[in-house]
């Protein structure tokens, strides 16, 4: 399959840059990522006069143009969805936001202001991507899995998720949580530390925290490092606090 066909299928949602196997594990679609890289290599810089005055980009990776038939609400004000990104019917995109090539955004998801959904990131159904959320993208190495956000997750303002972290179904991340392969996550409910880079469990409620640094000098200075804390798992009370989301749609 050539890169033109791959971009069309990514945009239509018939193929994805990452797929979930029967055991619930996510794996990068290497062929799709290689095709995206080939598209960048094949493209030539052109001006975007007539569409975006004063902008220059690859001629074969223009911003998508939506119509009412797409059933996507893209609110005016500086947002952009690049070619090769799938945005399902029912998605709402508030300005300014950016969705990069290879990304997949499923139905019912809200992408709020100043949010970034990076290349190949996979966003499930009914996810709330709040203001200033940064979801990292990855094209190289081609075997690296992108960030995955499963159905019904709630990402509060200023959350940062990078380096292929998987946030499982229904998890809630409080404002300011940062997750990467090197950030430790402590499950205070089960009293364990998750392996670095491990999935955020289903329905976990995660808040930002700190932990003391190792070493005598660091201890003398009272230095701490950032971490993430699972403080509870969603119940009926915490679910009720998220009902406002459906009211605002």
Primary descriptors:
249 residues, alpha/beta, UDP N-Acetylglucosamine Acyltransferase, domain 1, 10-stranded mixed β-sheet, 6-stranded parallel β-sheet, 5 helices, 25 strands
Description:
The protein is built from five helices and 25 strands. The N and C termini lie far apart (39 Å). The chain is of the alpha/beta class. The chain has helices at 3-12, 30-42, 216-221, 236-240, 244-248; strands at 18-20, 26-28, 45-47, 56-58, 73-74, 80-81, 86-87, 92-93, 98-99, 104-105, 110-111, 116-117, 122-123, 128-129, 134-135, 148-149, 154-155, 160-161, 166-167, 172-173, 178-179, 185-187, 192-194, 204-212, 224-233. Helix 1 (3-12) crosses helix 2.
